[in-house]
Amino acid sequence: MTKRYDYIVVGAGSAGCVLAGRLSEDPSVQVLLLEAGPPDTSVWLHLPIGYGKTMWSTKHNWCLYTDPDPNMNGRRIYWPRGKTLGGSSAINGLIYIRGQQQDYDHWAELGNTGWSYADVLPYFIKSESNERGAIPLHGGNGPLKVSDIHHKDELIEAFLDGAQEIGVPRTTDFNGQNQEGAGYYQLTTHKGLRCSTATAYLRPARRRSNLTVLSNAQATGLIMDGTRATGVNYRSGNTLHSVQLNTNGEVLLSAGAIYSPQLLQLSGIGPAKLLQAHGIPVVADVPGVGENLQDHLQIRLGFECTKPITTNDALNTLWGKFHMGMQWLTRREGPLAIGINQGGCFMRALPNESSTPDIQFHVATLSADMAGGKVHPYSGFTFSVCQLRPESRGHVRIKSIDPLETPEIQPNYLDTELDRRTTVAGVKVARDIARTGAMRPYVKREVKPGPQAETDEDFLAFARDTGATIFHPSGTCRMGPDGDAMAVLDPQLRVRGVQGLRVIDASSMPTLISGNTNAPVIMMAEKVVDLMREEKRQ
Q1: I want to staple 433 with a disulfide (CB 3.0 to 4.6 A). Which of 66, 131, 162, 264 is the partner?
Q2: What are 261-308's pLDDT values in tens digits?
């Protein structure tokens, strides 16, 4: 007899591992987790500095490219996405950021009942095990380990002092009462190792007899009986398989902002005209599927340092590499234990137009032509700046009925005047910090954009020529209230027009939050599990 499941979770990423781990706590249900990528056995998935390796690893990374973006001079922009147990939480930059209180209150104002900051804060706390303990606004006993950076780096200290010179106060907690400020990031690490959702939520659950985890199993479509999801088709190697739900079971799509809308569209759920153009029978005409794509665009300013104190210097010599390795092996400390970006800030680049921070800085004590690329031969460091709440909207749309073909990804960056002005203002602020008294002794030269860039038009051209994703695509299956024609999900993250199907990942966000997206997606999964349990009790 074929085994059936109460829950089939598609995608073992930031949300999927949480869902599988939490739902399987109930021994009366059978849970299946499907992951297209391999198990998370590579050492590079657990070393924080492994980000530089997995950034280009086709084994653990989808290594996607967008379609040519006319606002970015027709460039196709590299979009890495996690493809392993843990998903993007296994290859990301490790930064633990929740976003601003106003982000979630805005979700509620849009009609998403139950998603205000007061509603979601308990789930941030529930998920977190902060090394500072269960202090106000933080959790001390959750699965997700969150650690401080204890080494105070000379360059980061200079940046923080420089930020203070232009009026940005120091902060010790970007996830406290007020996000605005400059400081060291907290990271999803524990004792010098990455804490992905596979480590935090899945590993403790693997011995449960009611949880089945299939890696190297890529979902190719949903099995529908009328408008009810009854199972999932998937490919393992060159073999096609099907798995079925028990009566009243649910499929939980957590394949991310690219693949969740693709799977819906391939299964007949999406804009009717798009589906009909590909000969796909329409199960539910849901026009918002794949629309509303949002992302944070990073602009990276590069500098040569006057002192040989950067990570470039360590990586460019055998002795430096040996020293870093010994630091990690003997004390679980040093650059290998903390990843790429150590410090940053949240501030207002357009203070007369925003009451809360509208840009974020990531500061790295290394430099390279691209994130995760080979470091430069000189002492270098990088300021990355991104606008936090872009107005620009793109889309994800299937190109064919082949589930293995990457869909059309059009980010449509810098499409509005506000996005362009905020981005330019952010670049100018970055340059201002680099020219402060605190930073000046460390800046030998500005490599990018370089002294020839002087006007707003120069900075905008630089953004169009070099801007890249900071890896936060979202919004393509957004939730919304009844009456919102473009809402794909209701506030319980159930797909409209069908039964037995939810989407829980960054695609579910109605608007992009003001910061890194890993922690918010984990929160969303924690909250939805509670919603599902409450529905079951009723």
Answers
A1: 162
A2: 999 999 999 999 999 999 999 999 999 999 999 999 999 999 999 999
| Segments making up each domain of the chain, as ranges | 1-144+185-255+498-538, 150-184+297-387+414-466
- In which residue are the tokens 């936060």 written? 472
- Known catalytic membership, residue 472: yes
- Residues 6 or more apart whose Cβ sits within 8 Å of residue 344: 182, 183, 185, 360, 361, 362, 363
DSSP H stretches of helix in 95-153 = 101-109, 117-127
Alpha carbons 400 and 265: distance in angstroms, whole number: 10
pLDDT band at 14 (very low <50, low <70, confident <90, very high): very high
Helix (H, G, I), strand (E, B) or coil at 121: helix
Q: Do domains 1-144+185-255+498-538 and 150-184+297-387+414-466 have the same CATH topology?
A: no
Burial (0-12, 13-18, 19+ Cβ within 10 Å), 263: buried
Spatial distance between the Cα atoms of 311 and 48, rounded to a whole number of angstroms: 14
Instruction: Spot the catalytic one: 106, 138, 376, 472.
Output: 472
Residue 284 to residue 286: CA distance in whole angstroms = 6
Dihedral (Cα; 178, 179, 185, 188), 10-degree rounding: 90
Question: In the chain, count of helices (H) and strands (E)?
Answer: 13, 25
Dump pLDDT digits (tens) for 211-229. 999 999 999 999 999 999 9
**DSSP classification of residue 368:** B
Greatest Cα-to-Cα distance within the chain, rounded to the nearest angstrom: 73
Q: What torsion do the CA atoms of 462, 463, 465, 470 make, to the nearest 10 degrees? A: 140
CA–CA–CA angle 150, 152, 156 (5° rounding): 130
CB atoms within 10 A of CB 440: 12
Q: Is it true that domain 150-184+297-387+414-466 has CATH number 3.40.50.300?
A: no
64 and 406 Cβ atoms separated by less than 8 Å = yes
- Write down the pTM of the prediction: 0.97
Instruction: Please state whether the peptide bond connecting residue 449 to the residue before it is cis, i.e. omega within 30 degrees of 0.
Output: yes
**Structural contact between residues 475 and 509, judged by C-beta atoms closer than 8 angstroms:** yes
DSSP state of 52: H
- Position 472 pLDDT exceeds 70: yes
pLDDT exceeds 60 at position 1: no
Written as six digits, the tokens of 58 are 């086709």
Fold classified for 1-144+185-255+498-538: FAD/NAD(P)-binding domain (3.50.50)
